Amino acid sequence: MDIQVRVIPDFVSMILVLLAFLVLLLILGKLLYKPVSEALEKRRENIQKNIDDAKASKEEALALKKEYETKILEAKKESQEIIEQGRKRGEEVRESIIIEAKEEANNIIEKAKKEIQVEKEKAILDVQMKAGDMAVLIASKVIKENIDMAKQQDLINKFVDEVGTKEWQN
């Protein structure tokens, strides 16, 4: 057995392998190049579309976030205004209640003063009437007895002692 080792391959084999490779390349290029290229192009377009959609979604999300933050700030401001209005209204109600209470107290005081005045006038009238009755009683007792000055003084002292008892009215 003789083994020959060639460093350079056989020229005919090399041409046949090269021809087979070119035919295979041509067949594969015709059959697979277009579908694979189209698939790769579709894949690239799909990836680009997903990237664009993601960017649009991100921008939309940022816009919504900004809008919500604005609405939250407006809601906080509105709630603060409502609280402030409620506080002011509470103060107004408190002030009006205090004013009404003061007016009512003044009315009660005025009414009490008028009642006191009326009662005072009644008491004065009653005292005047009783004083008149006393004067008439004293006069009638003085007339019943014909008396001198000492007797008259004695009668007055007796009358003063009897005032307030039932005896003096008889």
List the helices and strands and how they pair.
Blueprint lengths: L10 H134 L4 H14 L8
Key structural traits:
mainly alpha; 0% strand
Task: Describe what is shown at a glance.
With 170 residues, this protein is an all-alpha fold. It has helices at residues 11-144, 149-162. It is built from 2 helices and no strands.
Helix percentage: over 70%
Shape descriptor reads rod-shaped
| Residue fraction in strands | under 5%
Structural Rg? 64 Å
Number of helices: 2
| Class by alpha and beta content | mainly alpha
Q: What is the overall pLDDT average? A: 84
H/E series: HH
Largest sheet: none
User: Structurally, how many domains make up the residues?
Assistant: 1
Instruction: Provide the low-confidence segments as ranges.
Output: none
Can you give a write-up of this model?
Residues 37-122 form a coiled coil. The chain crosses the membrane at residues 12-33. The protein has 2 helices and no strands. By secondary structure, the chain is mainly alpha-helical. It has one domain. It starts with 10 loop residues before the first helix and ends in an 8-residue tail after the last helix. The mean pLDDT is 84.
